[in-house]
Amino acid sequence: MQGMSPLASTLVSVVVSFCPTVILALIFAFSDIQALPPEALGWFFLLGVINFLGGRTASFQAIGRIGASRTAAIQATAAIFASVFAITITGERPHFVVLLGTLTVVTGLTTAMGNSILEGINHNRGALIGYGLALVAAACYGGTNVIAKELTQEYGSPLMVSAFALFFGILLLAPLAGSSAVREVRASRGNPKFALSAGLAGLAAATGVIALYYALERADVSVVSPIVSTNPIFTLILAQIFISRMENLTKWLFLGVTITVAGIIVVSIGSTL
Q1: pLDDT at residue 23, rounded to an integer
Q2: d(CA 187, CA 179)
Q3: Which of 33-42, 118-127, 226-235 has the highest mean pLDDT?
Q4: How many whole angstroms separate alpha carbon 16 and alpha carbon 182?
Q5: Could you tell me what percentage of the chain is helix, strand and coil, using 3-state DSSP and rounding each to the nearest 5?
Q6: Structure letter (DSSP) for residue 250
Q7: What is the pLDDT of residues 3-35, one digit of tens each?
Q8: Could you give phi then psi for residue 222, rounded to 5 degrees?
Q9: Which of 90, 91, 177, 204 is most exposed, with the fewest beta carbons within 10 Å of its own?
Q10: Angle at 215 between CA 213 and CA 219, to 5 degrees
Protein backbone atom coordinates (compact mmCIF):
# COMPACT_ATOMS: atom_id res chain seq x y z
CA MET A 1 0.00 0.00 0.00
CA GLN A 2 3.01 2.28 0.06
CA GLY A 3 2.33 4.75 -2.73
CA MET A 4 -1.14 3.36 -3.54
CA SER A 5 -4.55 4.46 -2.35
CA PRO A 6 -6.50 1.95 -0.20
CA LEU A 7 -9.27 1.47 -2.76
CA ALA A 8 -6.79 0.89 -5.59
CA SER A 9 -4.90 -1.58 -3.40
CA THR A 10 -8.14 -3.38 -2.63
CA LEU A 11 -9.07 -3.72 -6.31
CA VAL A 12 -5.61 -4.98 -7.27
CA SER A 13 -5.77 -7.53 -4.45
CA VAL A 14 -9.21 -8.78 -5.51
CA VAL A 15 -8.23 -9.07 -9.19
CA VAL A 16 -5.09 -11.06 -8.34
CA SER A 17 -7.13 -13.25 -5.95
CA PHE A 18 -9.75 -13.92 -8.62
CA CYS A 19 -7.37 -15.27 -11.27
CA PRO A 20 -6.23 -18.51 -9.56
CA THR A 21 -9.61 -18.99 -7.86
CA VAL A 22 -11.64 -18.94 -11.06
CA ILE A 23 -9.21 -21.36 -12.74
CA LEU A 24 -9.59 -23.81 -9.84
CA ALA A 25 -13.38 -23.38 -9.87
CA LEU A 26 -13.60 -24.09 -13.61
CA ILE A 27 -11.44 -27.21 -13.22
CA PHE A 28 -12.95 -28.71 -10.07
CA ALA A 29 -16.44 -27.18 -9.73
CA PHE A 30 -17.67 -26.67 -13.29
CA SER A 31 -20.68 -28.96 -12.77
CA ASP A 32 -21.76 -26.90 -9.75
CA ILE A 33 -21.46 -23.71 -11.82
CA GLN A 34 -23.63 -25.19 -14.58
CA ALA A 35 -26.29 -26.22 -12.06
CA LEU A 36 -26.63 -22.78 -10.47
CA PRO A 37 -30.16 -21.33 -10.49
CA PRO A 38 -30.49 -17.65 -11.50
CA GLU A 39 -31.49 -16.53 -8.01
CA ALA A 40 -28.12 -17.70 -6.67
CA LEU A 41 -26.43 -14.81 -8.47
CA GLY A 42 -28.27 -12.37 -6.22
CA TRP A 43 -26.84 -14.04 -3.13
CA PHE A 44 -23.34 -14.05 -4.63
CA PHE A 45 -23.77 -10.35 -5.38
CA LEU A 46 -24.74 -9.72 -1.74
CA LEU A 47 -21.71 -11.71 -0.60
CA GLY A 48 -19.49 -9.56 -2.83
CA VAL A 49 -21.00 -6.36 -1.45
CA ILE A 50 -20.50 -7.32 2.19
CA ASN A 51 -17.14 -9.06 1.81
CA PHE A 52 -15.27 -6.82 -0.63
CA LEU A 53 -17.08 -3.50 -0.94
CA GLY A 54 -17.63 -3.50 2.80
CA GLY A 55 -15.09 -5.72 4.54
CA ARG A 56 -11.94 -5.58 2.45
CA THR A 57 -12.30 -1.89 1.53
CA ALA A 58 -12.78 -0.90 5.17
CA SER A 59 -9.90 -3.16 6.16
CA PHE A 60 -7.45 -1.59 3.69
CA GLN A 61 -8.59 1.90 4.73
CA ALA A 62 -7.97 0.98 8.36
CA ILE A 63 -4.51 -0.45 7.62
CA GLY A 64 -3.57 2.83 5.97
CA ARG A 65 -4.56 4.74 9.13
CA ILE A 66 -3.57 2.56 12.09
CA GLY A 67 -1.30 -0.17 10.69
CA ALA A 68 -1.65 -3.84 9.84
CA SER A 69 -1.23 -5.33 13.33
CA ARG A 70 -3.82 -3.13 15.04
CA THR A 71 -6.27 -3.57 12.19
CA ALA A 72 -5.88 -7.35 12.29
CA ALA A 73 -6.38 -7.45 16.05
CA ILE A 74 -9.62 -5.46 15.91
CA GLN A 75 -10.86 -7.44 12.92
CA ALA A 76 -10.57 -10.58 15.01
CA THR A 77 -13.79 -9.43 16.69
CA ALA A 78 -15.44 -10.74 13.53
CA ALA A 79 -15.77 -13.95 15.56
CA ILE A 80 -18.21 -12.18 17.87
CA PHE A 81 -20.25 -10.76 15.02
CA ALA A 82 -20.28 -14.13 13.25
CA SER A 83 -21.45 -15.96 16.37
CA VAL A 84 -24.23 -13.42 17.00
CA PHE A 85 -25.39 -13.59 13.38
CA ALA A 86 -25.22 -17.40 13.33
CA ILE A 87 -27.24 -17.73 16.54
CA THR A 88 -29.87 -15.11 15.69
CA ILE A 89 -30.23 -15.68 11.93
CA THR A 90 -29.39 -19.31 11.17
CA GLY A 91 -30.28 -20.81 14.55
CA GLU A 92 -26.91 -22.29 15.51
CA ARG A 93 -26.68 -23.39 19.13
CA PRO A 94 -22.96 -23.57 20.07
CA HIS A 95 -21.83 -25.33 23.23
CA PHE A 96 -21.27 -23.12 26.27
CA VAL A 97 -17.54 -23.87 26.13
CA VAL A 98 -17.41 -22.41 22.60
CA LEU A 99 -19.00 -19.19 23.85
CA LEU A 100 -16.57 -19.13 26.77
CA GLY A 101 -13.66 -19.46 24.35
CA THR A 102 -15.08 -16.66 22.19
CA LEU A 103 -15.29 -14.44 25.29
CA THR A 104 -11.64 -15.27 26.03
CA VAL A 105 -10.73 -14.20 22.51
CA VAL A 106 -12.43 -10.85 23.11
CA THR A 107 -10.56 -10.46 26.40
CA GLY A 108 -7.28 -11.11 24.64
CA LEU A 109 -8.07 -8.54 21.95
CA THR A 110 -9.01 -5.97 24.60
CA THR A 111 -5.72 -6.59 26.39
CA ALA A 112 -3.81 -6.31 23.13
CA MET A 113 -5.44 -3.13 21.95
CA GLY A 114 -6.49 -1.18 25.06
CA ASN A 115 -3.24 0.68 25.72
CA SER A 116 -2.40 0.96 22.05
CA ILE A 117 -5.77 2.49 21.20
CA LEU A 118 -5.46 5.09 23.96
CA GLU A 119 -1.97 6.06 22.83
CA GLY A 120 -3.08 6.25 19.21
CA ILE A 121 -6.06 8.45 20.04
CA ASN A 122 -3.98 10.77 22.22
CA HIS A 123 -1.42 11.28 19.48
CA ASN A 124 -3.73 11.18 16.48
CA ARG A 125 -7.44 11.85 16.76
CA GLY A 126 -7.83 10.65 13.19
CA ALA A 127 -6.90 7.16 14.41
CA LEU A 128 -10.45 6.85 15.74
CA ILE A 129 -11.61 6.62 12.13
CA GLY A 130 -9.13 3.80 11.52
CA TYR A 131 -10.36 1.83 14.53
CA GLY A 132 -13.96 2.40 13.46
CA LEU A 133 -13.20 1.18 9.95
CA ALA A 134 -11.50 -1.94 11.34
CA LEU A 135 -14.62 -2.64 13.41
CA VAL A 136 -16.84 -2.16 10.34
CA ALA A 137 -14.63 -4.64 8.48
CA ALA A 138 -15.01 -7.10 11.36
CA ALA A 139 -18.80 -6.86 11.23
CA CYS A 140 -18.75 -7.36 7.45
CA TYR A 141 -16.47 -10.39 7.70
CA GLY A 142 -18.67 -11.85 10.43
CA GLY A 143 -21.72 -11.52 8.19
CA THR A 144 -19.75 -12.92 5.27
CA ASN A 145 -19.04 -16.12 7.19
CA VAL A 146 -22.72 -16.74 7.79
CA ILE A 147 -23.72 -16.04 4.16
CA ALA A 148 -20.84 -18.13 2.79
CA LYS A 149 -21.82 -21.14 4.89
CA GLU A 150 -25.41 -20.93 3.70
CA LEU A 151 -24.27 -20.68 0.07
CA THR A 152 -21.87 -23.63 0.27
CA GLN A 153 -24.58 -25.77 1.83
CA GLU A 154 -27.19 -24.69 -0.72
CA TYR A 155 -25.23 -24.55 -3.97
CA GLY A 156 -22.12 -26.70 -3.59
CA SER A 157 -18.40 -26.16 -3.99
CA PRO A 158 -16.63 -23.54 -1.84
CA LEU A 159 -14.37 -22.95 -4.86
CA MET A 160 -17.38 -21.82 -6.87
CA VAL A 161 -18.64 -19.60 -4.03
CA SER A 162 -15.18 -18.04 -3.69
CA ALA A 163 -14.89 -17.37 -7.43
CA PHE A 164 -18.32 -15.73 -7.72
CA ALA A 165 -17.75 -13.63 -4.60
CA LEU A 166 -14.45 -12.35 -6.01
CA PHE A 167 -16.03 -11.74 -9.43
CA PHE A 168 -18.76 -9.56 -7.98
CA GLY A 169 -16.17 -7.88 -5.77
CA ILE A 170 -14.32 -6.79 -8.92
CA LEU A 171 -17.53 -5.55 -10.55
CA LEU A 172 -18.40 -3.51 -7.47
CA LEU A 173 -14.93 -2.03 -6.92
CA ALA A 174 -14.07 -1.28 -10.57
CA PRO A 175 -16.31 1.83 -10.90
CA LEU A 176 -14.89 3.22 -7.65
CA ALA A 177 -11.21 2.48 -8.08
CA GLY A 178 -10.63 1.15 -11.61
CA SER A 179 -9.07 4.27 -13.13
CA SER A 180 -6.90 5.03 -10.09
CA ALA A 181 -5.76 1.41 -9.86
CA VAL A 182 -4.71 1.36 -13.53
CA ARG A 183 -2.93 4.69 -13.14
CA GLU A 184 -1.08 3.67 -9.98
CA VAL A 185 -0.12 0.25 -11.33
CA ARG A 186 1.30 1.93 -14.45
CA ALA A 187 3.25 4.33 -12.24
CA SER A 188 4.77 1.32 -10.47
CA ARG A 189 5.66 -0.46 -13.72
CA GLY A 190 9.16 -1.81 -13.63
CA ASN A 191 9.13 -2.07 -9.84
CA PRO A 192 9.56 -5.79 -9.10
CA LYS A 193 8.92 -5.26 -5.39
CA PHE A 194 5.46 -3.84 -6.11
CA ALA A 195 4.58 -6.68 -8.49
CA LEU A 196 5.78 -9.31 -6.01
CA SER A 197 3.92 -7.74 -3.08
CA ALA A 198 0.67 -7.35 -5.05
CA GLY A 199 0.89 -10.90 -6.33
CA LEU A 200 1.62 -12.44 -2.95
CA ALA A 201 -1.11 -10.37 -1.26
CA GLY A 202 -3.66 -11.52 -3.82
CA LEU A 203 -2.63 -15.16 -3.64
CA ALA A 204 -2.65 -15.10 0.16
CA ALA A 205 -6.13 -13.57 0.14
CA ALA A 206 -7.39 -16.16 -2.36
CA THR A 207 -5.98 -19.00 -0.29
CA GLY A 208 -7.55 -17.55 2.85
CA VAL A 209 -10.99 -17.16 1.28
CA ILE A 210 -11.01 -20.67 -0.21
CA ALA A 211 -9.75 -22.31 2.98
CA LEU A 212 -12.31 -20.40 5.06
CA TYR A 213 -15.22 -21.45 2.85
CA TYR A 214 -14.12 -25.09 2.95
CA ALA A 215 -13.95 -24.87 6.75
CA LEU A 216 -17.43 -23.32 6.91
CA GLU A 217 -18.75 -26.16 4.75
CA ARG A 218 -17.59 -28.66 7.37
CA ALA A 219 -18.20 -26.91 10.72
CA ASP A 220 -20.45 -24.35 12.42
CA VAL A 221 -19.80 -20.64 11.97
CA SER A 222 -19.50 -20.18 15.74
CA VAL A 223 -16.62 -22.69 15.78
CA VAL A 224 -14.78 -21.66 12.60
CA SER A 225 -14.87 -17.89 13.13
CA PRO A 226 -12.95 -17.75 16.44
CA ILE A 227 -10.28 -20.06 15.02
CA VAL A 228 -9.94 -17.85 11.94
CA SER A 229 -9.43 -14.95 14.36
CA THR A 230 -5.91 -16.22 15.03
CA ASN A 231 -4.81 -14.25 11.95
CA PRO A 232 -3.39 -11.39 14.15
CA ILE A 233 -0.75 -13.84 15.36
CA PHE A 234 0.56 -14.34 11.84
CA THR A 235 0.22 -10.62 11.12
CA LEU A 236 2.33 -9.78 14.18
CA ILE A 237 5.05 -12.24 13.24
CA LEU A 238 5.20 -11.12 9.62
CA ALA A 239 4.99 -7.43 10.54
CA GLN A 240 7.91 -7.83 12.93
CA ILE A 241 9.96 -9.58 10.23
CA PHE A 242 9.15 -7.44 7.20
CA ILE A 243 7.75 -4.05 8.26
CA SER A 244 8.95 -3.48 11.80
CA ARG A 245 9.89 0.08 10.81
CA MET A 246 6.19 0.80 10.11
CA GLU A 247 4.57 -0.96 13.05
CA ASN A 248 4.93 -0.17 16.75
CA LEU A 249 4.47 -3.53 18.48
CA THR A 250 4.08 -3.49 22.27
CA LYS A 251 4.25 -6.10 25.03
CA TRP A 252 0.51 -5.66 25.56
CA LEU A 253 -0.10 -6.65 21.99
CA PHE A 254 1.82 -9.90 22.41
CA LEU A 255 0.16 -10.61 25.79
CA GLY A 256 -3.25 -10.09 24.25
CA VAL A 257 -2.44 -12.41 21.38
CA THR A 258 -1.37 -15.08 23.89
CA ILE A 259 -4.73 -14.82 25.66
CA THR A 260 -6.45 -14.93 22.28
CA VAL A 261 -4.67 -18.19 21.45
CA ALA A 262 -5.90 -19.63 24.76
CA GLY A 263 -9.42 -18.68 23.73
CA ILE A 264 -8.98 -20.44 20.39
CA ILE A 265 -7.91 -23.61 22.19
CA VAL A 266 -11.03 -23.44 24.37
CA VAL A 267 -13.22 -22.99 21.30
CA SER A 268 -11.59 -25.99 19.64
CA ILE A 269 -12.22 -28.13 22.71
CA GLY A 270 -15.81 -26.91 22.92
CA SER A 271 -16.43 -27.88 19.31
CA THR A 272 -15.84 -31.53 20.22
CA LEU A 273 -18.30 -31.56 23.12
Answers
A1: 92
A2: 12
A3: 33-42
A4: 13
A5: 85, 0, 15
A6: -
A7: 677 778 778 888 888 988 999 999 998 988 888
A8: -65, -20
A9: 91
A10: 120
